Amino acid sequence: MRTAVVVGGGPGGLAVAGALARSGWQVTLLERADRIRPEPTAVVLWPNGVRALRSLDLGAGLDAIATPLPDGGVRRPDGHWLVQPRQTPVERLPVVVHREDLHDALIAGLGERVELRTGVTVRTVRAAPGERPAVGDGRHTYEADLIVAADGADSVIRRQLAPEATLVSSGCAAWRAVIPWYRAPRLPGPVGGEILGAGYRFVAASLGDRGASGGSSRGGIHWMATAAGAPRPEPPETQLALLRRWYAGWPAPVDELLAATDPADLVQQEIRELRPLPRAYGFPTGPGAVVLLGDAAHAMPPHLGQGTCLAFEDAATLAALLRESTLPDAVMAYDRVRRPRAAAVVRQTRRMSAVLRTRGRLALRARDAALGTITPRLLGSAAAMATQWRPPSASS
Ligand SMILES: Cc1cc2nc3c(=O)[nH]c(=O)nc-3n(C[C@H](O)[C@H](O)[C@H](O)COP(=O)(O)OP(=O)(O)OC[C@H]3O[C@@H](n4cnc5c(N)ncnc54)[C@H](O)[C@@H]3O)c2cc1C
Predict the structure, then answer these.
(1) Quick one: 369 exposed, middle or buried, by C-beta within 10 A (0-12, 13-18, 19+)?
(2) Is 94 a pocket residue for ligand 1 (Cβ < 6 Å)?
(3) Where does 11-80 show beta strands of DSSP type E?
(4) Does domain 3-49+58-67+99-169+273-355 have CATH number 3.40.50.720?
């Protein structure tokens, strides 16, 4: 039986571990935290991410927890439309999912064949030609035919195998929260869309009512605010007060959502990205291989909401290629297919970053004028990039 060690119990690691196990691999999943638990926020999955999950046979689990996200357009802080909401066919709409629901669905997909080891921090990787690949935590060595590095943006495995890829700040910080259903304000009309200001951005999405069919079992409203600059060192209460000051006077429902947020709901994060991307995603070792997957391979700012989607694409692609070819061929094909794909998404994300970072009155006026033409084009090609992706030998 072929064996794999997956490092990292984030969405990418869980998706690929389950897929390999369902294809008959014996899988060990190593996670440094004591429990596999995501942060209490939500994630937007575009049609490519949804299609990848379907091709991994996780579509039914997803349908039970996903809420469609209608196109809410893009506004300025003064309420003027930069991009009007569009009527979008439902199959092109993204969905929003509570990360805890998503993790539950991915863990349910692991089945019996995955040995889960938590509290294991991988520190070393062995990927020398002719040797069986392995990772170690200083006490144990875990050998396998295939090692999947799904250990996130800070990946120790990538640092050793692709040191040219450096994790750098994207120059902004993000705050997110899910306001639980029992504290969520009752808002007129659907919650959605985004608002762009000088270096500031606010997006919101409804997770539906608690227990509603086809929605999050947790329900509530998710929002995300990004601001140019570094993360704030103050306690969450002060961060929330700062957010209310920065976003004062922005169109509804920004103030209602910030007012309904408890400091304990708040998750602050520095936005970071890999520059440049790794030169390789696959490292054959003779009898086996190591591959990079998810943020370990292509950490990027969340402006187009594609990080998790790409991690699922990686998992679906790797699983499909391994079903069809030998391990060395599959790893070479994975590298060939995934690097240009990730590079294309990163290029689009960087263009969006440039728009979002614009500050200063003149630049802002130019941005607002240009946004009317650039943003629809940018969002249009990002949407096309998301809807057109197909997994190899797609079953859906
Ligand atoms: C503010 C924000 C908003 C976002 N919104 C979206 C969105 O709407 N849509 C979208 O598609 N993406 C979004 N993303 C991106 C998304 O969160 C990431 O791309 C995604 O989590 C990557 O999954 P992963 O499994 O590759 O890595 P991670 O989620 O980082 O998981 C890595 C796992 O590996 C474990 N680990 C790390 N090091 C080790 C080690 N040495 N040994 C053992 N285990 C280890 C970690 O504990 C963790 O469990 C957003 C990101 C941010 C910051």
Answers:
(1) exposed
(2) no
(3) 26-31, 42-45, 67-68, 74-75
(4) no
Q: Where are the domains of the chain?
A: 3-49+58-67+99-169+273-355
Tell me the mean pLDDT in the region 175-201: 88
For residue 43 and ligand 1, the question of a CB distance below 6 A is answered with yes
Q: 71-94 pLDDT, tens per residue?
A: 888 898 999 888 888 888 887 889
Assign 359 a pLDDT band (cuts: 50, 70, 90): low
pTM > 0.70: yes
Q: Report CA-CA distances (Å) from 222 to 103, 171, 279, 380.
A: 17, 23, 36, 24
Give me the mean pLDDT over the 359-375 stretch.
67
Cα–Cα distances (Å) from 25 to 18, 20, 28, 64, in that order, read 9, 5, 10, 27
127 lines ligand 1 (CB under 6 A): no
Q: Which residue has the least CA distance to atom 31 on ligand 1?
A: 10
Hey, whose CA ends up nearest to atom 20 of ligand 1?
Answer: 308
Nearest protein Cα to ligand 1, atom 21: 308
Give the model's pLDDT for residue 395. 41
Quote the CA–CA distance of 91 and 233 in Å, as a whole number. Answer: 42
Using most ligand atoms within 8 A of CB, pick from 36, 290, 308, 389 the residue to mutate for ligand 1: 308
